[in-house]
Amino acid sequence: MKTTPSFRSLLVLLAICLFAVSGWAEAPEDTASPVALTLAEELFAEGQYAASAIEFRRLALAADDPAESATWLWMAARAYAQPDDVHAARLALDLLDDAEFAAPPGDVASPLPIAFLRAELTLRLRESAPARYYFQTIPAALPETVTPGEADAWREFAARGAAAASLTAGNLADAREDVAAYPTAVEVVDAYAATSRKSPVVGGLLGLIPGLGYAYSGEYGNALRSLVLNGLFIWAMTETAIEDQWALFGVSTFFEFTWYTGSVYGGIDAAHRHNREALQETISTLRPVQASAIEPDPVALPILRLRFPL
Question: What's this model's pTM, rounded to 2 decimal places?
Answer without folding.
Answer: 0.77
